[in-house]
Amino acid sequence: MQLGVWISLGAYFVLMLAIGFYAWRKSTSSSEEYMLGGRQLSPSVAALSAGASDMSGWLLLGLPGALFASGLVEAWIGIGLFVGAFANWIIVAPRLREQTARYDNSLTIPEFLGKRFPSRAIALRTISAVIIVVFFAVYTASGLVAGGKLFESAFGEFIDVGGFSDYTVGIWLTLAIVLTYTVVGGFLAVSLTDFVQGCIMMLALVIMPLVVLYSGQGSGFSGAGETLSQVDPNYLSLFDGLTLIGFLSAVTWGLGYFGQPHIIVRFMAIRSLKEVPAARNIGMSWMAISLIGAVGVGVFGRAYAVRNGLEVSDPETIFIVLADLLFHPLITGFLLAALLAAIMSTISSQLLVASSSLTEDFYRLFLRKQAGETEMVNVGRVCVVLVALAAVVISSDPNSEVLGLVSNAWAGFGAAFGPLIILALTWSRMSGTGAVAGLVTGAVTVIVWISLGWNSSFLGGPGVYEIIPGFILAFVAIVLVSKLTATSGEYRAIETKAQPAE
Prior knowledge:
Blueprint lengths: L2 H24 L4 H6 L6 H13 L6 H9 L5 H16 L1 H10 L6 H8 L4 H35 L10 H48 L6 H12 L12 H8 L9 H9 L6 H32 L10 H9 L2 H39 L5 H22 L11 H21 L5 H20 L5 E2 L2 E2 L4 H19 L2 H10 L5
Antiparallel strand pairs: 1-2
């Protein structure tokens, strides 16, 4: 590995650690500061933090790889995600920012649900916290797997730690950097590093497709189109081979946004309600540019590979392959840092949200109700480490199928929390029992659907993405059970609480 690559990566690591120690000095004196940055995120930081923590390595590995292998039809997932993210900013962001502050300054999603529905507070906080911790341990593990495989494929021959595989060293190196700035600086460190990482990711996704497009013989849009039409006349079609079920399974990924704790917690931390629209515009612009860039990497990367006789054994490594082939070592290091940024931004966000639930919804709720602020911050740091260690155990097998569980975890969160969050924020006649019913119904439906294999094959046809039945049934369960169980007194309590703060 050339010196320039290590210089770029070293500068990136130093910057992440410096941000962590800056945040430690600025925002770790209380639980609210450690877990939500004191609700003082600027629109730009909140927007890019939400985007970077969302996309992960999928943006630079999974999406380009799918397009490289199968063509433009794979872009429907990206389209569905864009629409879902926009709806999330419109429906959830302003209401969640306002209501979590008003409901006794709720610091976590389970805590908000418990205070919104006090008659079922313990059940809601406990069940939702368990779901968050379990799913995020797996989610975090998937990020560590991606980090381990990145180091194994890009740096393996240059890393030699006796007794440990390149993959294992990659996992621990990735975790060490993330854990340091997350434990030390808390939510502010995670959000500020996410902002920087989001900028790096977007810049990489602008540079890469443009360079690839105009590199080699027969370059440019027309040359790429001609090359790809020779590979497959329908390669650039958005509709070739697309079935109704396939279309729905792709675009309904967007439903998951309403229930992703590591994304919607950013809405809670925006500096003020009036700054939500500015954050939305920044976030959606970033997402549009990044998604288009990722599509370009996959499509133009395929054209480049065909023109130059390049064999790519794993389509998901096309970003790494092109970074190594086409750029000066300093730029290659920057591009690999962008990939690490995508992985690390999501890991840090998931670790902190899982830690927050353990701290607020287990430790304070059941063990130390009168715990002081310093104690809670220190407990939060310990919980970050505990969740990280659990993720390391899950990710220890490089041949594990943890990465395949990411879509399942996304569906699980989306179905369990999505309808619950939407209705809790918008429907005053929702009951606590209805909230519990929706939470359990969504999670169980996703688990059962996956267990029966219906996400792979349903009634003899193509599989149906598990978020579709999970989201629908959870929504129905909340409405029906609420109508059957809510009392007039509960209505009045909810409506009184829903009045604007003085």
